[in-house]
Amino acid sequence: xxxxxxxxxxxxxxxxxxxxxxxxxxxxxxxxxxxxxxxxxxxxxxxxxxxxxxxxxxxxxxxxxxxxxxxxxxxxxxxxxxxxxxxxxxxxxxxxxxxxxxxxxxxxxxxxxxxxxxxxxxxxxxxxxxxxxxxxxxxxxxxxxxxxxxxxxxxxxxxxxxxxxxxxxxxxxxxxxxxxxxxxxxxxxxxxxxxxxxxxxxxxxxxxxxxxxxxxxxxxxxxxxxxxxxxxxxxxxxxxxxxxxxxxxxxxxxxxxxxxxxxxxxxxxxxxxxxxxxxxxxxxxxxxxxxxxxxxxxxxxxxxxxxxxxxxxxxxxxxxxxxxxxxxxxxxxxxxxxxxxxxxxxxxxxxxxxxxxxxxxxxxxxxxxxxxxxxxxxxxxx
Length: 382
Description:
Strands 1-2-3-4-5-6-7-8-9-10-11-12-13-14 form a 14-stranded mixed β-sheet, with helices on one face. The chain folds into 2 domains: 215 residues, Leucine-rich repeat, LRR (right-handed beta-alpha superhelix), CATH 3.80.10; 143 residues, Ribonuclease Inhibitor (Leucine-rich repeat, LRR (right-handed beta-alpha superhelix)), CATH 3.80.10. It is low in regular secondary structure. Strand 13 and strand 14 form a beta hairpin. The longest helix has 8 residues. The chain starts with 78 loop residues before the first helix and ends with a strand. The protein contains 4 helices and 14 strands.
């Protein structure tokens, strides 16, 4: 399987297990810009993630002197230094992108006042520490990507009332203050930061459809109750102990809470439109709490403590079931019932369970669940 977005749950992710959360585009041009008049074609940042591929790295270096004075982050490099020909005549620029994976990296946001028509700005993988300077951009920009920088605080963005997409993943942000005014936001990626609590800052953002909070330091699911238009939510790689406060998010189709500290499947009763549920790498001991999820097609519970395949009678649309790295020691009595409960099941992962040591393991699965086309990572031959 594959967050940041694969069609099947996997980790890297918005996470390197069998299911993960921030998906990133590996085919990124190292230095690129786009204007409305220049015909250069770019590889843009594709964030379909964020879904199941979270390869979030958690940096905890809080030492303000961590960067030596000769470190590139301490040099003053402006957007005009890396895009001189563009910013010297910016009248018709609508899309501006600079990805600092090679060459110079932007450190200071300044000299942007002439970009009077720009609508989308991407300064990915640079060394920007502060968002101060963004106020120089037009107030009507709709896309802002500052993925993979050194930003510590959300600021100088309150004026962007038309902003629809904000990507601030892989930075050092600790709080979501100053984001509440961005009422038009539909997509917010803020994975791999240092956020410990949402503090109700997201409650006014009722137009959000996609939210990635993976690889932060959250201990509780809260402060999301008003986000009734969410269809995708990534919370992988936090420190969450309980599934709760999601009952109002009835439009969710994708939910990822992998690599947390969960012990029980609960609190999902109202999420009847859920199609993908990723709860891998927790401490869950029993397959339960899924009765109302009649539209579920992908269920990832890899890396838990489950001992029995059960309680899936209402999940008639289930196609992919991931139970690798659990504690299932016998399954023969359960297989006919599993086939009856989930007639559309095509993919089943049970590797690294005690039961998988049986030399007829694959044969038994194929016999009792004839709908299977894949067992673990191997296609079924009939």
